[in-house]
Design a protein that fits this description.
Layout (H helix, E strand, L loop, with lengths): L4 E4 L3 H18 L1 H63 L7 E5 L3 E6 L2 E6 L5 E4 L3 E7 L2 E6 L5 H18 L1
Antiparallel strand pairs: 1-2, 2-3, 3-4, 5-6, 6-7
Helix pairs in contact: 1-2
Length: about 170
Amino acid sequence: MQDRSVELSITAADHTRAVQIHVIQQYWRRRAVVTGIIGLLLAAIVLGKAFLGPRDYYWLVRVVFTMVAVFVTMPLLLIYVFVPWNARRTYRQQKSMHRPVRIEWSKEGFATFRDDGRWTTPWSDFLRTVMHKDMILLYVAPNLFHMIPTRFLSSEHVVDLKRYAAVIDQVRR
């Protein structure tokens, strides 16, 4: 593949989608925490029934089900209400995101070009990648990433970036 560059302009919707994907990935990576919480709730039911008796058991079940409802509702509110609100606000405030950018990638690394400068990041500096149908996220820190909307990429570009992403993710394991 010869042409490894793309001109793009990030929109508020792009930024919002990238942050949503990031948050969902963070929750998914911490599934052990979610599993632990569910385990604790089930343990509370079993211990409650064992120590409180059958009459007192029903209020405990209601409390546990309420807690489960909160644990299910809060991530949904976070991902679909609070994250989009905050991402749109961040996009409004960060004027550099509004300007067009050209990205390039090669064996040496990933580069961004704007009117105000050029930044190159070697592939070895990336921590991980997230490949999503809407977005490619290249992480330089746990909560800091380059976002590449896939609508700007040809299928050859996506395949090429996936090749580099596989190397990044393989090195970090």
